[in-house]
Amino acid sequence: MDKDPGSVLGQPTKSEEVPLTLCKGLPDLPRDEDGPVFAEPWQAQAFALAVRLCDQGHFTWAEWVENFSAEIKRAQAAGDPDLGNTYYDHWLAVLEKIITDKGILQTPDLLSRKEQWRQAYLSTPHGKAVEL
Amino acid sequence: MGQDHSNDNAHEPGHSHAHHHDHTEPPADPVLRVKALESLLVEKGLVDPAAIDAIVETYETKVGPRNGAKVVARAWSDPAFKKHLLEDATAAISSMGYIGRQGEHMKVVENTHERHNMVVCTLCSCYPWTVLGLPPVWYKSAPYRARAVSDPKGVLAEFGTELPKGTKIKVWDSTSEMRFLVLPLRPKGTAGWNAERLEQLVTRNSMIGVELALRPDQIPVKSGGKA
């Protein structure tokens, strides 16, 4: 897809004849092309973890959606403009919630493991693989 | 969970700030949280890292919207398949080897000269992954989710989509149990085209219903010549 990369956020990509007044006063509508939908690798990993745990029967997809929509509502109420760019932040929060709610993992273990990873980075010379 | 955990900064014994030049800057909070989740799940034997990589790869590169394009192109060129697709999309799509995740049902809604269909998920972002891959950013955004319902014409205009006067717009709201796929109108000037050729006209956005299928003269030129 070699479209103009500048045509994002509410600008029509191929419509000389669309009067711009139609778009005035409307919230920005984020746009993208057929490109990658994960902005960063962790988003893909969080996505895959949820899919995998669901496949294995740890929760149903209906349960996931229920939690996910509740999380989005909560975030919106807290002031998140919810433009799609925080989607995987919500995704990760729900993943943590559902995993701890179901007793698959415990919150203190997650927190201490996260800290172990942080420390592992801090104690690994730059350029070397970071391992626990 | 999901809040900022940065208060939790107990240091591991043995770590010294003296050699701060000899370290790797830790990544952002979400990266560490995903690493924590994944490493613990792997240790518990609940998740196989290879399976995770396979899922990522599938949705990033293999699914994309191309499965959906194949379904649409076949419906355009095979009347018996189209009939099956409109009557029982879940079965017709599975028959092409595209199997849904958790038993969600698929419904295919056909555009006609009288009615244009658009798909949204107002609750969150339910999306027919099996046929369209992962959802684009705008599909997940609050403005799209709200305005697809309140102002579908305005949304179509933002995508540069103009419908003939008098065309009705029907908006379908997805749920965890029911996902929708739009069957766009087959473009003019494609008589005699086989499914493979027709597939090039089917874009992701046309299957969400925010755009029309491409006209033959709009087919993108791929590097290495016309496809």
UniProtKB/TrEMBL annotation, chain A:
Record region (Disordered): 1-20
Gene3D superfamilies in alphabetical order: Nitrile hydratase, beta subunit (1.10.472.20)
SUPFAM superfamilies assigned: Electron transport accessory proteins (SSF50090)
Residue ranges of every copy of the Nitrile hydratase beta subunit-like N-terminal domain listed in the record: 30-118
InterPro entries xrefs: CN_hydtase_beta-like_N, CN_hydtase_beta_C, Elect_transpt_acc-like_dom_sf, Nitrile_Hydratase_acc_put
UniProt superkingdom: Bacteria
Coiled coil: none
Annotated NCBIfam families: nitrile_acc (TIGR03889)
Name of the protein: Nitrile hydratase accessory protein
Organism: Kiloniella laminariae
From TrEMBL, chain B:
Top-level taxon: Bacteria
E.C. number(s) listed in UniProt: 4.2.1.84
Transmembrane portions of the chain: none
Domain Nitrile hydratase alpha/Thiocyanate hydrolase gamma: 32-210
Family annotation (InterPro entries): CN_Hdrase_a/SCN_Hdrase_g_sf, CN_Hdrtase_a/SCN_Hdrlase_g, CN_Hdrtase_asu/SCN_Hdrlase_gsu, Nitrile_hydratase_asu
Matching Pfam families: NHase_alpha
Region (Disordered): 1-28
Keyword presence, Ribonucleoprotein: no
Lipid biosynthesis in keyword set: no
UniProt entry keywords in alphabetical sequence: Lyase, Metal-binding
Residue spans of biased composition, Basic and acidic residues class: 1-15
Primary enzyme class: lyase
Catalytic activity: an aliphatic primary amide = an aliphatic nitrile + H2O
Family: Belongs to the nitrile hydratase subunit alpha family.
The protein's name in its UniProt record: nitrile hydratase
